[in-house]
Amino acid sequence: MTSPIAQAHTMFLVLVSPSGQYSIWPAVLQVPAGWQVVHGVASRQSCADYMDALRADQPLAA
Fold first, then answer.
1. Residue 26: which of 16, 40, 13, 39 has the closest Cα?
2. Are residues 24 and 48 in contact, defined by beta-carbon separation less than 8 angstroms?
3. Rounded to an integer, what distance in angstroms lies between the CA atom of residue 33 and that of residue 50?
4. CA neighbor of 36 nearest in space, from 53, 48, 50, 19
5. Residues 6+ apart with CB under 8 A from 25
6. Which run of H or of E encompasses 53?
7. What's residue 3's pLDDT?
8. In 10 A of CB 7, how many CB atoms?
9. What b/e readout covers 8-36, taking b as 16+ CB neighbours within 10 angstroms?
10. Span 11-47, pLDDT tens digits
11. Beta-bridge partner residues of 36
């Protein structure tokens, strides 16, 4: 299910937190303190594809 915030906006960013967590974030909202933009401004699909590519590059945990 898509959140109401995501439904209201068409352009997004991919953010990364200081602890390495990633998030797709509406581009019209202020980036939270400490988070950095690593992709975008782009479509939600482009941001999801970017995050999928990051996961594909990560080695699987043993």
1. 13
2. yes
3. 22
4. 19
5. 12, 13, 14, 15, 31, 35
6. helix 44-57
7. 64
8. 10
9. eeeebbbbbeeeeebebbbeeeeeeeebe
10. 999 999 999 999 999 999 999 999 999 999 999 999 9
11. 16
